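We emphasize that the prediction below concerns an isolated chain of 374 residues; any contacts that depend on oligomerization or on bound cofactors are therefore not represented. The input was used exactly as deposited, without trimming of termini.
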Amino acid sequence: MSLRYELIKEDERTGARLGRIYTGHSVIETPVFMPVGTQATVKAMTPDELKEIGFNIILSNTYHLYLRPGHEIVAKAGGLHGFMNWDRSILTDSGGYQVFSMSKLRDIKEDGVYFRSYIDGSRHFIGPEQSIAIQNALGADIIMAFDECVPYPCEHDYALDALERTTRWARRCKQVHRDERQALFGIIQGSVYKDLRKLSAEQITDIGFPGYAIGGLSVGEPKDLMYDILEYIMPYIPADKPRYLMGVGSPDCLIEGVMRGIDMFDCVWPTRIARNGTVMTSQGKLVVRNAIYKDDMRPLDEQCGCYACRNFSRAYIRHLFNVGEILGARLATIHNLYFLSKLMEFIRQAIRDDRLPEFREEFFNSYYASSLLS
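Result of the prediction step, given as a token string:
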């Protein structure tokens, strides 16, 4: 099989799950955060650095790689694994979210989506069949069904239409997917409407996939509403398959998602804020560009063992940002990814030790009690 999921333990108090995902390239301990490499690279990072931090799976983006350099070129290099020299697991999204986020450039039809390139304005088309063909060429271990992601807020009828189209597209994706080395995940939509989320979960799981993603959340809705939706739909998603919450990567959402039964997460947020000079620490977020750190010789986080914290001070990293040196963004990115990798390790250990709610309270008391961000 292209993918196997092993459920090791389920926390009785919270529904959190400890597990493993086996692909042809690596074993992934879950719950897991997956760094995003939109353009076949996690920005500012080398593959070896990602491995050293502890990541066994990363993401790349179908939409962007289709436009540049083109999936045919990636296939010529042996797929993404050869193209980017990454010998562990890769997940590619379907391109549906990018189409959604660039609404002024696209037109959704039953056969697929007609859109203009954000690069040069040229016209393109991606439907379910084209998305699968592109992802087959990219060669990721896990690929996603083409879906329609709706904005927040949106009307119930609009969300229903998008949900039903997503289901029809999912059937077409499964019908044309032929590469047994790749696991095709279905995506559950339905906005913030519980009746639609239930309907979508029933329809997508009825088609049958080796894993299930929850799309259309973290698109502007209040976090409490997202958590409520997750709690509601978990009973409708098979327990013997991995559950993937798309586009979520802040520490609070990771912990809360795990406590509601999510196994996989991804987001560009940790690397994006790093490039802007913001890092996560055990005492909260820290904006290292701020003047208060100009002569601060402490590491970014005195409890952190990452390369940046072992070797450099806040004052030095602030200096790098202020003079526009690339190394500043690299060090902040290394730190943020290390922070999240360790956070997921701590979460997994807390599940093993039957103390996840206690860990959550301890982490939040430390992370949100600080005024470092000011």
